[in-house]
Write the structure tokens for this entry.
Amino acid sequence: MGINNRGDIVGYCETEAGDFHAVLWEGGAATDLGTLGGDNSYAFAINDDGVVVGYSHTADGKVHAFMWRDGIMTDIHDTELPPINESYARAINTGESIAGTVGYGGVMWRTPDDYVWLLDGSGLSGPSDAHDINDSNQVVGWHHSSDEAFIWEDGLMEILPHLGINRSRAYGINNAGQVVGNVFDPDSHEEQAAIWEGGAPPVLLGSLGGSYSRANDINNSGTIVGAAKKADDATVPFYYKLSDGVMTELMNIGIGSARAVNNNGVIVGYAVNSAGDDKPVKWVWSRVRWPWE
């Protein structure tokens, strides 16, 4: 689900007991990060200092956001907020600001200050989800009431432009403020991967021949990753380099999704093997000689 610039990877795996636990892959070894007392936990992001965020079931069956550092998982669900049972942490930046959702509202946790910003403003309020945060504390996600992607900064939420139909999602943002997600294409009436830059309308990233695509992440060099349907309706992982302008299926690996990319171009996600099991995957660029000799 996430990778930092050191190459540490986080996600989740099924245990022998049939539960799911948050996992850190570091130097080829997998570490079970445990839970907040319940059966399941899920890790979504890791920063360059090795701080992991995600969410876990608690002993009383609630879902709480967590921060994991140096072997210790900490519950960061704010009990001072209204009595809402659920919180989710989905992204963390180098300053340890965390983006996620509490109840039905997108939030940003400011650690170690230990307070929460509710993501609204500019006259917008109501349910929202926050999915990513960059090092400038710009947060992106989607606003439920308007059904549109947003960017939040310095206490103000701004709805991102669309292509005439107000249905869009933002899932990733890099340090240059480039935002990726998907929008509803008014011509095809299909959801398509897109990028927003500099306040301009979104630019569609193309397709792999099918009816749907979604961009999940973008690194600081403009490499975008996600998932797209092919003509046979199979959903496969893709990458897209802004310098090339072409959506490319990742290694013909089969059904799956690319979830995150670091600034070294290493991509992580999942694929479905021949037995039908979801398996974590890492894609690494290799330098080759051309022409072949």
The first strand starts at residue 2 and ends at 3. The radius of gyration is 19 Å. The chain has two domains: 1-92, 119-278.
